[in-house]
Amino acid sequence: MKGISYRGNHICFGRYALQALEPAWITSRQIEAGRRAMTRNVRRGGKIWVRIFPDKPVTVRPTETRMGSGKGSPEYWVAVVKPSDMIQPQTHLNVADNSGARKLMCIRIIGTSNRRYANIGDVIVAVIKEAVPNMPLERSEVIRAVIVRTCKELKRDNGMIIRYDDNAAVIIDQEGNPKGTRIFGAIVRELRQLNFTKIVSLAPEVL
Question: Cβ(59)–Cβ(73) under 8 Å?
């Protein structure tokens, strides 16, 4: 299942919410188990909204039956959820350089105390989830990275909207210089205003 969620990815009720990080089918039993666990935790001291509904039937055929004769009877119902487009702690990102890392997981956003989501140009602390063998950077290593691409659209003053297909970051050192020697994919020119000129100079295309 591909794609991300462009609707239902903002908090409309209450102060806290659970956000999907990967696509999945959530069964009606799982939704009810989660609702009961949250209700017991708050001890009826708060209000809970469940904004997903299991509206997709899943059919199962009995064992040792012949092929054909249509589908089986509906066994249970599921709610289809997709990952949202906001970068926050525990969000997985691609690496847009040749430093050796392939996948990152965001741990926290540097320089923000009350902002929950990161945008292009923000520096994050992340852990390497996938890495190329025999490279200086290894798996489970904690590093710093700057976000260069987000699925969340970037709106400019002239009305232009830029949106990427993935969330990606470039690994940097303490001075803000990239650890890799090549940058993959197009990046926006707003990074130059944030003093990431070395990253902009290595990029093959600047939007």
Answer: yes
